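re: ur msg from earlier - yeah i can do the manganese (II) ion complex, just paste it... oh wait u already did. ok heres what im feeding in:
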Amino acid sequence: MKVLHTSDWHLGQSFMGKSRQDEHKAFLKWLMQTIEQEKINTLIVAGDIFDTTTPPNYALELYYNFLTKVSSFCKNIIITAGNHDSVATLKAPKQLLRALNVHVITSGDEEEDEIIAIYDEKKLCGIVCAVPFLRDYVVRKSLSAQTMDDKESALSLGIKEHYKSAYKRAKELSKDVPIIATGHLTTLGAKTSESEREIYIGGTLDIDSNFFKDFDYVALGHLHINQRVGCESVRYSGSPIPLSFSESNSQKKVNIVEFSGLDAKVKELDIPLFRKLLVIRGETASVINELENVTDKESWIEVHIKDENPFNANESIRARAKELELTLLAVKIDREQASLNATTFNAISLDELNPLEVFGKRVELESLEDQELTKELLKNFKVVMSEVEAL
Ligand SMILES: [Mn+2]
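and the outut:
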């Protein structure tokens, strides 16, 4: 059994108003060639296939065209839903895709069989416990009266039970072949980037790599940086393209996993970079100097400025970038400097803020005296935001 593990494609992402269509197209073409060349017989995509619950048509087209072509030479394709995916969107073509050897697991509820047997020439060679992003309603019910802390531990507990039961069912099928688990979650001690959305409100799961030690390989999604967690066989593949400027320096990879007996040997394979994201930091003069030296005009650029007068700096940097025909997507005030001047900090543009911060600024205008009320408003806004995102 030879497995290729990838995740977090985020097809259809609109990045500060820019489409990622060309990059995704190039990635899927590369992936298809890699699967063929490496003679992969099991492809695992561990969640966040699409960026939003209502992906644009071109993203759906990329997805279906890819699956149609790959299924002619890769006999087992396993797609699990992430927190960005709509269960309904992924589920709709489930039966149809089954005819192409594509297994789609969307919610992991009792109606979905997450245990997938992998055959090679009619011989059982592995089992995948295809666990998607586990939504609240699947892992815990009627916990509304409990406190946040209890909710969190109940959630961690529920998720752990879900994996234990999947492992048990896999082991009942065979004791001699490798058992792989998939997951879409944050494990303790893993590296995060700016583009992963918090999955569970205020929740940090009490799940570390040690919990997964029974599985022979764990194919994780959700975090966008390729990494091992704790041991060799528990890994995130990371996203195939940088999804935020904070990922601009991390080499994007897929993991190729080969087994000798139950032992997983993992090779990290570099994905070619199809478009550079560039972060330029410094004082106005040095930023402008660096902009003048950018040779790859296709790059997308974010600037962090250190300047006494950020408003003027913002204007002159944007004007120079325009003359140079560069794509400057955001100008921000250097974070260190921003926090130093916290009391006088004014955002120079919306680039600076996320929706929660915008709401925070709006609440500030009300000059509320009741601190608790302010806290409560922000918390509720966070809950509403996550519910909207989960639609
Ligand atoms: Mn993701």
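cool cool. The pocket of manganese (II) ion is lined by residues 8, 48, 82, 84, 196, 222 (CB under 6 Å). ping me if u need the other ligands too
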